[in-house]
């Protein structure tokens, strides 16, 4: 599970193994790392901290094994492990031969010949976003010192929606505020309604999905490249590494398909300092795979949690018969709130891996 070129991320571990962890290679030496800021991001993603999440409780305190000395990066690979202290592997014994609908149980069994770790989804679990958030928390500190801010909010949960970002005017202070909150919305009333929607689904032994909207401000024009080197390609390749992510769109996204060219194009102008800007930002800050200097704005859609308490049809791969199963255990009725810091972390890793002009070397 390796991703990235300039800064390479390796994620390891399983949901109910001893630990999960991350290795970051390619970080510049001498970068200060604030462990308190990392703890904030880890707490936002950690289970058991909010009524909308699974009751599984994990401290999610990364233990750094290498790459950091006196709170600065050394230039060596930065390795951290995060212990799994509240695992209940016995909850999954009955699923060894009966794949859960919506999970990777069947496909993993085919891929690995039945030798994969099935407990809690093994390496396919949302538990693996813990090391992703750790890695992103380190990278976002490096980017923030270079004037690049990242923040996201819950745009929708099931049928309840928040206000969207203004894609042209995105204050850094807003992104900083959102990136410190566990259930970030732009409209406080939306949070109340979203929590009620999650609770209603949970009471029915069901689950709901939603959309996270994320923005990157302060990124200069000219980063990225054409075709597969494009910024959208880099972002999407790591965003789809977040379990339950089923769709990504930039700027106007799919809505652009219903517009005329005259409606979709973003007119250029010079601002008061002479910098090139666009009046609108339907491109989401990217043209031809290259950043325009406007905020990068994208949305990631997350499916409902597949582990639900309602009876579901499945098959027994050992007996060859159809069966009905009911998933027991501890699961999020909605993964979206805890996905927000994972999306921000993925964005930080994507930005730090774009081709120049984002400078990583020490100044």
Account of the protein in words:
The chain has a 5-stranded antiparallel β-sheet, with helices on one face. A 5-stranded antiparallel β-sheet has the order 9-8-10-16-11. It has a two-stranded antiparallel sheet with strand order 5-6. Helix 1 packs across helix 3, helix 1 (35-45) crosses helix 8 (336-352) and helix 6 crosses helix 8. The chain has one domain: 4-Layer Sandwich (Chorismate synthase, AroC fold), CATH 3.60.150.10. It is built from 8 helices and 18 strands. It has helices at residues 35-45, 105-112, 129-144, 172-178, 188-203, 231-239, 261-264, 336-352; strands at residues 2-3, 8-13, 19-25, 63-66, 68-69, 72-73, 78-83, 149-157, 160-161, 210-217, 245-250, 268-270, 276-278, 286-287, 290-291, 296-302, 312-316, 321-325. Strand 5 and strand 6 (72-73) form a beta hairpin. By secondary structure, the protein is α+β, with helices and mostly antiparallel strands.
Number of helices, counting only DSSP H or I runs of 4 residues or more: 8
Q: Strand-residue fraction?
A: 15-25%
* Low-confidence runs of at least 5 consecutive residues: none
CATH A-level architecture: 4-Layer Sandwich
**Can you summarize the main beta sheet?**
5 strands, antiparallel
| Nearest-integer average pLDDT | 92
Key terms:
alpha+beta, single chain, Chorismate synthase, AroC fold, 363 residues, 22% strand
Give a topology summary:
Layout: E1 2-3, E2 8-13, E3 19-25, H1 35-45, E4 63-66, E5 68-69, E6 72-73, E7 78-83, H2 105-112, H3 129-144, E8 149-157, E9 160-161, H4 172-178, H5 188-203, E10 210-217, H6 231-239, E11 245-250, H7 261-264, E12 268-270, E13 276-278, E14 286-287, E15 290-291, E16 296-302, E17 312-316, E18 321-325, H8 336-352
Antiparallel strand pairs: 1-2, 2-3, 3-7, 4-7, 5-6, 8-9, 8-10, 10-16, 11-16, 12-13, 14-15, 17-18
Helix pairs in contact: 1-3, 1-8, 3-8, 6-8
């Amino acid at each position: 599970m390796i991703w990235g070129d300039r800064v390479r991320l390796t994620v390891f571990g399983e949901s109910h193994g001893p630990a999960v962890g991350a290795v970051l290679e390619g970080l510049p030496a001498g970068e200060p790392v604030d462990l308190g800021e990392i703890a904030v991001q880890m707490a936002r993603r950690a289970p058991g901290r909010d009524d909308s999440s699974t009751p599984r409780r994990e401290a999610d305190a990364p233990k750094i094994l290498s790459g950091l000395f006196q709170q600065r990066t050394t230039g060596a690979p930065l390795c951290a492990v995060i212990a799994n202290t509240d695992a209940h592997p016995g909850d999954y014994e009955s699923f060894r031969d009966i794949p859960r609908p919506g999970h990777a149980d069947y496909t993993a069994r085919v891929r690995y010949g039945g030798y994969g770790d099935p407990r809690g989804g093994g390496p396919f679990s949302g538990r693996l976003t813990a090391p992703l958030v750790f890695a992103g928390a380190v990278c976002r500190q490096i980017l923030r010192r270079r004037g690049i801010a990242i923040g996201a909010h819950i745009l929708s949960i099931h049928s309840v929606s928040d206000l969207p970002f203004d894609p042209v005017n995105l204050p850094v202070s807003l992104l900083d505020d959102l990136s410190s909150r566990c259930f970030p919305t732009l409209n406080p009333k939306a949070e109340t309604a979203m929590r009620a929607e999650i609770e209603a689904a949970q009471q029915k032994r069901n689950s709901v999905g939603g959309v996270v909207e994320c923005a990157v401000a302060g990124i200069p024009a000219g980063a990225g490249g054409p075709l597969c080197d494009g910024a959208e390609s880099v972002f999407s390749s790591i965003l789809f590494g977040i379990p339950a992510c089923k769709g990504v769109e930039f700027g106007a996204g799919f809505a652009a398909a219903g517009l005329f060219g005259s409606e979709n194009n973003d007119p250029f102008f010079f601002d008061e300092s002479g910098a090139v800007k666009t009046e609108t930002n339907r491109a989401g800050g990217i043209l031809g795979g290259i950043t325009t200097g406007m905020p990068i704005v994208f949305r990631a859609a997350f499916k409902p949690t597949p582990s639900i308490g309602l009876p579901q049809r499945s098959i027994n791969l050992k007996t060859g018969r159809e069966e009905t199963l009911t998933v027991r255990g501890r699961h999020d009725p909605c993964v979206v709130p805890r996905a927000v810091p994972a999306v921000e972390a993925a964005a930080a890793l994507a930005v730090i891996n774009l081709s120049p002009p984002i400078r990583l070397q020490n100044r």
